[in-house]
Amino acid sequence: MNVFKCDGVEIRYRVHGQGENVFLCWHGFGGGPADFQDVAPMLGRHAKVIIPNLKYFIGSQWPKTFSRQIEILALFTQQIWDVHRPKKLHMLGQSYGGTLSLALRAFTHLNVSRHWLLNPMPFDPLASVQNKKIQDLLFALKAGRDMVEYMRSAEGHENLVEAARVFRIGATGQHEIHHFNERKLLLVEKAMERFLWIEQRENWAQWFERLASLTDQSIDRVYYSSHDSLFDTENYEKFIAKIRPKDQIKIDHNGHLLLQDKWAEVFAEFAG
Asked: Which of 139, 184, 217, 270 could form a disulfide with 42 if both were Cys (CB 3.0 to 4.6 A apart)?
């Protein structure tokens, strides 16, 4: 296990596979490195696969804004470059991790050879959330509801379970939580509380401006769900249009986490 330290943040990561190239993989908000358990062996045939654990940004006592996370990840990525000296650097990111990797490109102008995004979270995400139960949960958090009381109510319990289902918070790899005790619901509540904290403290307009500075087709592919369970499809597709990828591919999928549900379809070219 390798550890990168900066500003009190510890980013743990492992290196899988071998080769002269590096594939940096960024997991989503409720996920972890185990999300790549099916993909890493395939990618590892062609490159070193490095999957940083971003859970510190989600669960640490001292939160970091989205912009500060990007600054830290820029230093992390520079260290990876300095240590491994890849011939080519590739990136793959899902949901929140995809958006971190996109903002990282806009912030640093890294020389990335291939960059794939899976259902990247739109900048200013609350404006794009379509899931009514998650909307209600975020509203309750914004209103300062007593969350212990809220999660014990039928509505609150249902909304927290929905957030766990969509983000798979507390799950491992492809698995979902099936038994929701109070401890697990508190885990979901804390994660959503952090999501709201990050969203409210960010100047998302600056990231749209930085995104515009990227050259056309800087991102190779954006894969997105035909029926995303989290984001409004129209707003979502508008965000993808602003990314201006070389290719955008709609996957027949009713959900948000393509990496776990549709990995065989998305990564078919690596399977041989």
From this structure: 270
**Residue pair 190/196 in contact by the 8 Å Cβ criterion:** no
Res 181: pLDDT: 73
* Gap between the Cα atoms of 219 and 116, Å rounded: 7
Sign of CA pseudo-dihedral 257, 270, 76, 118 = negative
Closest CA to 222 of 203, 206, 202, 238: 238
Q: pLDDT of 16-42, one tens digit each?
A: 998 999 999 999 998 899 999 889 998
Tens of pLDDT, residues 89-123: 999 999 999 999 999 999 997 889 999 999 999 99
| Cα 230 from Cα 195, distance rounded (Å) | 14
Q: How far apart are CA 17 and CA 34, in angstroms?
A: 15
Residue burial 137-165, b: 16+ Cβ < 10 Å; e: rest: bbebbeeeeebeebbeeeebeebbbbbbb
Residue 13: C-alpha distances to residues 26, 121, 211 (Å): 11, 23, 27
Cα–Cα distance measured from residue 104 to residue 191, given in angstroms and rounded to the nearest whole number? 22
**pLDDT score at 72:** 96
